[in-house]
Amino acid sequence: MRRTFQDLARQANVPDLVTRAISGHATERMQRRYSTAHLEEIRDAVGKVAALATTPKTVP
Question: Over 80: is that where the pLDDT of 57 sits?
Fold first, then answer.
């Protein structure tokens, strides 16, 4: 359940400070240890980076 809670809290956009307070993790390191990156999150992140990399920059 530890990993499930961390993943669901991240998906619900619960602030890290609140997630750590609920789970009892004192540090970001422990919070990350019990989190997993899901395929949808990875695809979304790659898509965002690709969009930034392929968007033409405008010159002021």
Answer: no
- Residue 60 CA to residue 7 CA, distance in Å, equals 41
**Any domain includes 60:** no
On whether the pTM is more than 0.70, the answer is no
Domain housing 9: 2-54
Summarize pLDDT for 4-30 with one digit per residue, the tens: 998 899 889 999 989 999 988 888 888
Residue for token pair 């530890």: 2
Decide if 7 is inside a domain.
Answer: yes
Q: Residue 5's CB: how many other CB atoms inside 10 A?
A: 15
DSSP calls for the chain = -HHHHHHHHHHTT--HHHHHHHHT--SHHHHHHT----HHHHHHHHHHHHHHHHSPPPP-
